[in-house]
Amino acid sequence: MDKRKVILYNISDLLVRSKIEQTASSRFEILNLATVKEVCRVPSVSSEVIVICDLTNCGDELVDLVKASRQIDAKVVGFYPHVQTETGRAALSKGVDIVVPRSALEATLRKILDKN
After folding, report:
1. Which of 29, 49, 69, 98 lies at a C-alpha separation of 20 to 30 Å from 38?
2. In Å, how far are 5, 20, 95 from 14, measured between CA atoms?
3. How far apart (Å, rounded) are the C-alpha atoms in residues 12 and 25?
4. Cβ–Cβ contacts within 10 Å for residue 48, how many?
5. How far from 43 is each of 7, 21, 72, 74, 87, CA to CA, in Å?
6. Cα dihedral sign, 8-14-20-25
7. Is the CB of residue 110 less than 8 Å from the CB of residue 21?
8. To which CATH superfamily is domain 4-115 assigned?
9. Is 101 in contact with 80 (CB distance < 8 Å)?
10. Looking at residue 94, what DSSP letter applies?
11. What is the Cα–Cα distance from 63 to 36, expressed in whole angstroms?
12. In whole angstroms, what is the distance from residue 26 CA to residue 24 CA?
C-alpha cells in the first residue's frame, strides 16, 4: 500500500509549512506543489490524499484546485488569517471541505490525521 499523502499547495509561509510537516511526516508523504496541474498528477489509487492550501494565496485557482482534488479523491483543507472570515466562508462555498483559521490549523490537522 502506498504511503498516504499530504499536499501542501502553494503555501509560502515557512512556519506553517514546517508545522504541517512536523505533524504529518511520520505517517504521510509530504508533497510541496505549486500548480493545479501538479495536483492532478498525484496518484491516489491506494492511498489517502489531503490537500492543504493557504486560502489567501489561492485566488482564482481555488475552484480549479477543488476540481483537481476531487479527481484524485482528496480532501481539501484551507486556512486563512483569523481576521479574514469572509475568505473562509467563500472557500466553503467553492467546495473546500474544511476551513480553519491559521491559528487552529495544527490542532485541526492532528484531528484529521488521527481519524485516518
Report:
1. 98
2. 19, 10, 26
3. 18
4. 16
5. 12, 20, 7, 10, 29
6. positive
7. no
8. Response regulator (3.40.50.2300)
9. yes
10. T
11. 10
12. 6
Residue whose C-alpha is closest to residue 78's, from 69, 86, 88: 88
- Residue 45: what residue type? V
**For residues 16 and 39, is the Cβ–Cβ distance under 8 A?**
no
**Cell numbers standing for residue 88:** 473562509
Contact in structure between 55 and 77 (CB atoms under 8 Å): no
Residues 6+ positions from 82 with CB-CB distance below 8 Å: 101, 102, 103
Per-residue pLDDT of the chain (116 residues; tens, 9 = 90+): 456 788 888 888 899 999 888 888 888 888 888 888 888 888 765 567 889 999 998 888 999 999 999 988 889 999 999 899 999 999 999 999 999 999 999 899 889 887 75
Return left, alpha or beta for 95; rule: phi > 0 is left, psi -120 to 50 is alpha, else beta.
left
